[in-house]
Amino acid sequence: MSSNILASLRVIFSKPKVGTFSYSFALAALLFCLGCPRAYGDVGVILNESLDTSMERITGSGHTAVYFSRICPESPIKLRLCRPGERGSVLSNYINLGEDERFEWNIAPLTLYVYGVQDPRFRPIFGSQKVKGVLEEKYREQVLDLNCATESCMTSNKAEWREMVGAGMTRSMYFFVVETTVQQDLDIIAKFNSLPNENHFNGMTRNCADFVKDVINTYFPHFAHRDPVNDFGMTSPKAVARTFTYYALDHPEMDLRVIHFSQLPGTFKRSSEARSGTEQLYHSKKLLIPMVIFADYALPVAAATYALTGRFNPGHEFEAHPAIEDIQTGDQVSFGKSEKDIAPAEDARAVDAPEIVEVVGTSEEWKEYRKAFDSIVDEAVHEEVIPNRGYLNHYFKRLDEQGTPSIDAEGALWMEFPDRGAKSKVGVSEENIFASGSDSHVAYGLLLARVSHVLKSPKHSRETMLEFKQDWALLQYARVRNSAPASVVPATPSRGAAILTGGNH
Fold first, then answer.
1. Which of 290, 336, 346, 384 is deepest in the core (most CB within 10 A)?
2. How confident is the model at residue 487 (pLDDT cuts 50, 70, 90)?
3. 437 vs 60: CA distance, rounded Å
4. Same domain, 265 and 382
C-alpha cells in the first residue's frame, strides 16, 4: 500500500469527533484513493480576487495569470519542463515589473507565487507585510539578482515583481484547469523562450487578461476571448475565466477542474470577488452616486446585460468541479510513466466522487466545527491562554507589530519578539511551529487565531475542508502541548494527521 494511501487512512481514522464517524466513509475514501487518476499535464487560467488598491478599487477586476503543471522556470524569464519534485509554475505580466529591463512577463514556481516559499513545508501560517517583505527579499537575492540590481528594483514597493511572491497573502484565487499534451507544453516553451520579452502593457488593448487570453489560445485556438459588452470593449480577468470555463465544459475531454487557494489569514485587508464591468457597475458602492445620476439609463442596462450574458460564479464552479492541489494537502507528487507524463503533473487531482471526499465541506460540518471551537476558546480563556474571546480578532496584528520575521538556513519562517526583558520566538510555518525553541504558548494562540479566522470567513475566501482539517489537527496538538507537563507531551503530529479528538473534553 502506498504512503499516500496510508497517510489518507491516518487522517480518516483519526478524524476529530465532530459529528458521527462512519467506517463506511473510511472504506469509500480508501477506494477513492486506489482509483485516483494517473498523472497529467495541465494549463489553467488563474482568477485572482480584487484588491482595494489602485485601479482595482474602482474596477473590481482583480488580476489573471497562467498556471502550468508541467512547465517550470529556468529563470524568471526562461521556461523549461519541470523536473521530478517540482510543482509547476505561474506565468504573469503586469504594468511594470520594475526590473532592470522592461520585461513583459515573469514566471515563478507555483508554491512561491501562492505562499512565498519554494518548499511547501515552509508555507506561512499567517501573512503580513513584514512576512511578505522578508520572503520578497529572499526571492530577490536568490533568484532575481541578475535582473534586479538597480536601487529602484531592489527597494521600490511599486515594483510589481513583488506580486509574484506570496500572492496568496493578499488575495484568494481560483485556478480553472484543463489537460495538455507534452507537445503543447514544449511548443509554449519554445515560443516564450524565442520571442522578445518586452513590455508593451496597455490597459485597454494589452492588459493582463489579454496576455492570458493569448497564451490560452496558443494551446487551444478561440478557447478564451473578451466580453466587449460587459467590459466596455476591454478584456477582463473574469471574462477570460468565464469563456475558458464554458468552452471547457462544452468539451468534456478537456477534463475541467477548479482549484481554490484561499487568502492566507493575517493582517492584509481581505480581497473581494473579481467582477466584470457591468457587474461592478451594478454592485459597487463606490459607483453609487453616478449610478443614481444616470439611473434611468445606466442601472437597467447594466443589470440586464450582466444578468443575461455576464453571470459567472467561480465559487459555484469550484463546488461543481473541485480539484485539490498537492501543496494544499501535503501529499507527495506522483509521476506518470507514459510519454505524456514525461514531467510531474499530478498537482491538480480531480475529485470524481464528491459524495466520498467532501472537498469544500457541508454547511452542517462547518457548523459543528464552529460549535466545537467555541468550547476550545472558552477553555483557552478559562486557562488564561488568551484574556478574552475578542483577543483572537487582533492576534495577528499584535504578533506582527511586536515581532520581527526571519528565515533560517533551511528556509523556515520565524517570528522573534520581546519577552519580559529577553527575546523569544515562534515558528510561523507548519514545519517549525512545534520545533525546539518555538514558544508553545504563542504557537497555541497563533493556531487559535488561524482557526478562528477560517471559521468566520465567507465561502469565497475560506480554505477547503481538507486544508482546515490539517489546521484542526495542529490546533488539537497545540492545545494538549500547551497544558501537558513536558514529560508527557505527545509526539509532533504528522502532516494532515488529526491526532486528537476535538471539542468538548
1. 346
2. very low
3. 44
4. no
